[in-house]
Design a protein that fits this description.
Layout (H helix, E strand, L loop, with lengths): L5 E7 L3 E6 L4 E5 L6 H5 L4 H4 L3 E2 L6 E2 L5 E2 L1 H7 L1 E2 L2
Antiparallel strand pairs: 1-2, 2-3, 3-7, 4-5, 5-6
């Protein structure tokens, strides 16, 4: 199943992302389990973490050096935000 497109991503404290979807859903995704190793470890830097952006067409997110998280993981593991 295709995931709905992301319309907004907002970095939050404690390495979480708030994601808005075209369906009107809003989810909170915890990035902490992904911040390991040399490649993803860079996300520990608050300034860098906050540079997250949406991929063209809303198909996913990424950081400037190419770190990303699969769209289905963002959607499926995201917790509904109130």
């Amino acid at each position: 199943m295709l995931q709905p497109k992301i319309t907004k991503v907002e970095p939050m404290p404690d390495y979480k992302l708030r994601l808005d979807y075209e369906t009107g859903e809003r989810k909170i995704f915890d990035v902490v389990p992904y911040i390991i190793g040399d490649w993803y470890g860079r996300l520990k830097e608050p300034f860098y973490f906050n540079t997250v952006r949406i991929l063209p067409g809303g198909s996913g997110i990424e950081w400037p050096e190419g770190q990303d998280i699969a769209p289905h993981e963002l959607y499926d593991a995201g917790v509904d935000a109130c």
